[in-house]
Amino acid sequence: MVIVDSPVAASYDDLQSLPALFEAVSNGTVPERGSSWQALRALFQATEVGLVNLGELAAAAVNRLRAGDEPGATRCLEWMVGFGRVWNELAWLVQDFSPLGQEDGPHVLAVVSSPSWRHLVNVERELAQELKPLAESPSAVQWKRHVLRYAMLQRASLEYSCVDGAPSGYEDFVRPEAVREAVRERQLPGETVFMQFRAAHQMPELLIQVVNDHLERAVDALGHAQEQQAVPLLRRADRLLDAVVRMTDLLVDQMTTEEYHGIRVALGLTSGSHSVGLHFELMRDLYPALARKSQDGSREIQHLTRTIGLHIDRWRLGHINLPRTNLGGAETGTRSLTGSPDALQTVARMREAGRSRDRYAQTERPFGA
Q1: Is 166 helix (H, G, I), strand (E, B) or coil?
Q2: Confidence band for 55, pLDDT divided at 50, 70 and 90
Q3: Residue 266 near residue 188, CB atoms below 8 Å
Q4: Is the predicted pLDDT of residue 83 greater than 60, yes or no?
Q5: Nearest one of 206, 207, 237 to 301, comparing CA atoms
Q6: Rounded to 10 degrees, what is the CA torsion of 123, 172, 29, 206?
Q7: Rounded distance, CA 179 to CA 20, Å?
Q8: For 151-168, what is the mean pLDDT?
Q9: What are phi and psi of 164, to 5 degrees?
Q10: Torsions phi, psi of 4, nearest 5?
Q11: Nearest by Cα to 205 from 81, 30, 10, 49
């Protein structure tokens, strides 16, 4: 493993290539903010981030098999399953948000039109050729179940990643090449999970941008007593935030402590707590504003608001599990990315501070904080 001895970026935004990513998605056909097409566009763009990573992982598996490193190739397949799960979640939402009975435009959006998909197909053919001679070996049981699981996820995801009635074609609407360039903007030498770590932040950031636009318009609608306009906005925000929370599992479930420490120095003092969209716009400004406005709203508005708050709390819980399982656990002296002496306690305190400010948070719990 190649050791990186200095940070690769001075800020969270630069580490995750967010300026390049947001610039990439700001061109082409840009739907109205707060619309279902804005949400669909972000889902396809997040899928593109995943496709680029799947292609890189499949290629790494091929190279490791050719070098005789079957365990290393199996590790790549495990990561592919993780990205397959994320893709499956995004694809389900594409169907959930797609037009019902009335087309808005003449175009069809389908992942099969993506150059990153075509690249992935070619690399997967190479991978299949490398795996085929090993199919009868005793060690094959280690990777066969990962291949089967990934194939099942990919089949469903591919079918669901298609929608009619789009205002423009895939290249113009999704901007796959520009997304690919942003995803590949920063890389580390050697075999690391740096790209996968970045993807686990890039995909949520694309969705959070849309969530915030939806919530901003919902708050404005509630301020003008327009609940009918606010409800669909909050429903989409609810579903998108649920997907953001589930993406936390990609690192919690897949990244090992060794893999994390292989990239730790490169991350510097950056942290997800520096995310403008997530921590400042959503958690500090928009959700508290929504919670206040919803107090005079209907039960449906209040339920949707409470659910959005619960997604935020679930996200914080996921970031307690991440240091617990990947960084070293409680009372080990493991430093957070911002340099705090105990990562687990730092995130736990952040969660409790957020709950204390949330008027919808459950006050009584069956165990201590």
Answers
A1: strand
A2: very high
A3: yes
A4: yes
A5: 237
A6: 10
A7: 8
A8: 95
A9: -90, 165
A10: -95, 125
A11: 49
Nearest in space to 82 (alpha carbons), one of 236, 184, 161, 193: 193
Question: Can you say how many angstroms the Cα of residue 88 is from the centroid of all Cα atoms in its chain?
Answer: 12
State the average pLDDT for the chain.
Answer: 88
Q: Residue 164 in 3-state DSSP?
A: strand
Which helix (H) or strand (E) covers residue 109, if one does?
A: strand 107-110
279 contact partners, CB below 8 Å, separation of at least 6: 272, 273
328-367 pLDDT per residue, tens? 554 544 555 555 555 556 666 665 666 656 666 666 555 5
Q: Hey, what amino acid is at 90?
A: L
pLDDT at 96: 95
Measured from the Cβ of residue 242, the count of other Cβ atoms closer than 10 Å reads 16
* Cα 344 to Cα 332: distance, rounded to the nearest angstrom: 9
- Work out whether the CA dihedral 216, 222, 225, 230 comes out positive or negative: positive
Three-state secondary structure of 156-180: HHHHHCEEEEECCCHHHHHCHHHHH
Average pLDDT over residues 125-144: 90
Lowest mean pLDDT, pick from 112-126, 131-145, 216-230, 236-250: 131-145
Residue 98: name the closest of 43, 26, 168 by CA.
Answer: 43
Q: Which residue is it, tokens 């990244």? A: 255
Residue 368 CA neighbour count, 13 Å, CB half: 0
Confidence of residue 103 (pLDDT cuts 50, 70, 90): low
Spatial distance between the Cα atoms of 166 and 276, rounded to a whole number of angstroms = 30
d(CA 42, CA 296): 31
> What pLDDT is stored for residue 3 in this prediction?
44
- Identity of residue 164: D
Please, which residues have CB within 8 angstroms of residue 275's CB and are 6 or more apart in sequence?
12, 201, 205, 208
Radius of gyration over every alpha carbon of the chain, rounded to an integer in angstroms: 21
The neighbour count for residue 161, using CB atoms within 10 Å, is 25
Residue-level pLDDT at 241: 97
Distance CA 196, CA 5 (A): 20
- Token pair, residue 141, equals 């049981």
Is pLDDT of 369 > 90?
Answer: no
